[in-house]
Amino acid sequence: MRFFVLICLTVFVFTFAGCVSDAQSNKHETESPAEQELTETANSDTQTETLIQQEKSILPESESEKTEEEKIPQSFAEKVFLSYKKAYPDKNINYYNNGKDWVISLNNKEFCWADGRLLPKDKAARAADYDPQQIYPYTGKPRNPSEYTKEKIALLRQKGTPEALQKEKPVDESFIVELLGVKNRIITEEKIVKSQLLGHRLNIHKCIKDKITTISNEIESAAKNNEEIANFIKSIHETSGYNWRTIDGTNERRSCHSYGIAIDVLIKNNKKTTYWEWERVWNPDWMLVPQKRLWTPPEAVIKSFEKQGFVWGGTWDEYDTMHFEYRPELIELGKLMQD
Ligand SMILES: [Zn+2]
Q1: How many Å lie between the centroid of ligand 1 and the Cα of residue 254?
Q2: Cβ contact 235:297 at 8 Å
């Protein structure tokens, strides 16, 4: 028996990805700090529109004897929690319904799904004070602006404006902080390790080191018989990962680069559209740029990242085609939502 779950994914971005990485002089972070701030704030603002859901959580009696993972997830919250459990099998994650809310425990700390937000129990009653986290089903499907409604275009046009920034609320990051052990800069940097991606140096969270090595080896191997991939490797200017920073005026919001789980692949002399915020500077119709006009890594490269639990920023309405971030829970959620 399935219950009604309405999930309206109007627009999404990503923030806690927020794709603005290191401030080298020749890439998207070349913008001034104020512009960087604008970017991330805009992304997080979108979070409020990301998920609207109605859910019921009564379980059928026949299901009551099963463990949580054996049951068919009924609600979006349940699917999110199952996705986290599947995505991080080495973490101590459990979840249950307390008769009112879905509750997930991580390292014996409990968090509630409250009105589309994943919040510590003591904040759940004040869910409206927070913007939702970027938790959405990732399928890897490219964006398709030709299908955007007028309303969606109008909404996207607001992104990054001072009005949109003013409406922003804080995003509670307690769960991801607990998941990755990234409470503050000192503690985070204890977990940052050196890595290499396609011959370029990269600082990343140690939890993705093996995955980056696997991705790099797989792409290099594929390049031996594929000119497009070989040319892609040659065209890389640099790669960029960990970059700790907080953003003024955004309630200390951090991007996934701050956690060391986001990676940018920067290309030499890239003249194609890559990042929505750069395009927005001169093109008010930035959201309508067709997918095929965006700079895109070879399909096999994207697939290599996805296989290791990374989502690609080129699928976002607020596109960022150089950006990959480790969000295996979103990929699991994408699979669950398709079932
Ligand atoms: Zn990025």
Answers
A1: 12
A2: no
Structure tokens at 98: 């307390």
| CA 214 / ligand 1 centre spacing (Å) | 20
- In degrees rounded to 5, what are phi and psi of residue 121? -50, -40
Between the CA of 17 and the centroid of ligand 1 the distance, in Å, is 7
The residues whose Cβ lies within 5 A of ligand 1, an ion, are 19, 21, 264, 323
Q: Is 67 in contact with 85 (CB distance < 8 Å)? A: no
pLDDT of residue 40: 42
Distance 293 CA to ligand 1 centre (A): 19
Residue of 14, 95, 18, 102 whose CA lies nearest to 53: 102
29 pLDDT band, cuts 50/70/90, is very low
CA distance 257 to 243: 5
pLDDT per position as a tens digit, 206-245: 999 999 999 999 999 999 999 999 999 999 999 999 998 7
Nearest to 178 by CA among 114, 261, 92: 92
Q: What pLDDT digit, counting tens, does each position of 67-120 carry? A: 555 666 679 999 999 999 999 999 999 999 998 899 999 998 999 999 999 999
- pTM for the whole thing? 0.80
Q: What is the DSSP string of 83-141?
A: HHHHH-TTS-EEEEE-SSSEEEEETTEEEEEETTEEEEGGGGGGGGGSPPP-------P
246 CA from centroid of ligand 1 (Å): 15
